Amino acid sequence: MADQTQAKHRRVYTFHVRGGRMSATQEEALKRLGPLWLVPVTAQAFDTEQVFGRSAPLILEVGCGMGATTVEQAAADPHSDVLAVDVHTPGIGNLLALVEQEQLTNVRAVHGDAVEVIDRMLPQKSLSGFRSYFPDPWPKMKHRNRRLIQREFVDLLVPRLRPGAFVHCATDVSDYAEQMVRILGSHPDLENPFGGLAPRPADRPITKFEGRAIAAGHQVSDVWVTRRLKP
Question: Using alpha carbons only, how large is the chain's radius of gyration in Å?
Fold first, then answer.
C-alpha cells in the first residue's frame, strides 16, 4: 500500500532537481558532517528519539535554501527538533556548516524529495509543525499544478500533524498566497485562526531572498493554519 501511495504522489514533481556549484566549505561540510546529520530517505519510519537522541516536538521544514533561517529558528527554539528537507545540494552543505558553527544539536537534514519523506518515513501524528518559506511558485499557468501547496500534498501532510500542530507558509507571489489560503483553509481537519492571511510572525527571519523580493516591490504574505484539536 505504501508503494501505491508513493506512486500516486510522485506523478507531479514540485521542484527542479538542483545541483549547482558547491563552495569548498559546503563540499567539505557535506562530506564530513553528512554521515552525522544527514538522514537518508528510506521506507522505515522516522524515529525521533533514535535520530536526535531525545523525545521532543518535531518540525518539518521543506525548502531550507541555504539554511540560515532554519538555523536561526532552531537556535531560538532549542526545545524542538527540526528536520530540514531540500533537493539543493549546496544548500544542504551550507546548512550543515551553519549547524556546526552554531553548535546546534536539534537539526537534521534530508537531501531529497519532501513528498517521499512524508509518504515513506513520517508516522501519523508525528509532527508538531510544518514550515515552507518561499516554495517554488511555478509562475507559468501550465505548471501551477506542480506547486507544493496543493490539495494532494496537503492530504498527504495532514495525517502526520498532531492535533494543534501548525502549518506556516510564506510567499511573495500574490496568487500563490491566495491558493495557500484557499487550499489550507478548506481542508476539513485544518483551521485558519485569521480567516485569511496571517500577520508576519516575529520569529520568522527575513531571508536574503525575501529582502530582494521586498526591494523589488513584492508583497510578502504569511499563511498560518493549525490542525483541529478535535475532528
Answer: 17
* 77 included as an active-site residue: no
Q: Are 19 and 30 in contact (CB under 8 A)?
A: no
What is the third-level CATH fold of 2-227?
Answer: Rossmann fold (3.40.50)
Residue 111 neighbours by CB under 8 Å, 6+ apart? 38, 86, 87, 89, 92
Please count the helices (runs of H) and the strands (runs of E) in the chain: 9, 7
Rounded to whole angstroms, the Cα distance separating 117 from 112 reads 8
| From 81, 113, 136, 172, active-site residue | 136
Q: Sign (positive/negative) of CA torsion 59, 122, 224, 228?
A: negative
**Whole-prediction pTM:** 0.90
Q: Is the separation of the CB atoms in 129 and 167 below 8 Å?
A: yes
Q: Which of 130, 134, 85, 131 is nearest to 112 (CA)?
A: 85
Tens of pLDDT, residue by residue, the chain (231 residues): 344 444 444 444 554 555 568 899 999 999 999 999 999 999 999 999 999 999 999 999 999 999 999 999 999 999 999 999 999 999 999 999 999 999 999 999 999 999 999 999 999 999 999 999 999 998 888 888 999 999 999 999 999 999 999 999 999 999 999 999 999 999 999 999 999 999 999 999 998 889 999 999 999 999 999 999 986
